[in-house]
Amino acid sequence: MRRIIAIVICLLLLSSCTSYEQTIPDVPTPHIVEDVHVLDESFGFYKGSIDMSEITSITFSSTPPDNYDECWNANIVNTSDITGYRIGTDVVIVGDCIYANTICSYMFAAYNSYGDPLWYSLTAINGLELLDTSQVENMKMMFAFSQLTELNG
Prior knowledge:
This protein has a six-stranded mixed β-sheet with strand order 2-3-4-1-6-8, with no helix packed on it. It has a two-stranded parallel sheet with strand order 5-7. Strand 3 (82-87) and strand 4 (90-95) form a beta hairpin. Mean pLDDT is 84; it is low at 10-25. 22% of the residues are buried. It is α/β, with parallel strands linked by helices. The protein has one helix at 2-23; strands spanning 57-61, 70-73, 82-87, 90-95, 98-99, 124-126, 131-132, 150-151. The protein has one helix and eight strands; from the N terminus they run αββββββββ.
């Protein structure tokens, strides 16, 4: 008799598990961003020859400038899908689709955690509507000690 009761209980448990599995809703697939559209980590998207502490503005754009002093690949896979341009002390980051890296700590900070100057002279960031931050996980100190007077977009 105990054996029959145990079998019935097991069958009931199994049937409840089966019905539970059938009621699990479809989980949407997370949006996967191709690496070619992701900026290099933190402030690593800047690869210009003058010290970043001298840069006064950063602009996100979908159109490359006509004239520039230098250019570089600014995404995490080092391809031209996101390109950085320096014009004097201004930086233009160009791409059709620009995602911020999951790690944006100190991205626009005036100093790093050791007190070394980063974007010390940065006063303006333009075109922020073109920078998709939906995948960012860490914005720690993103604008720390910033000298910014303009944020547009």
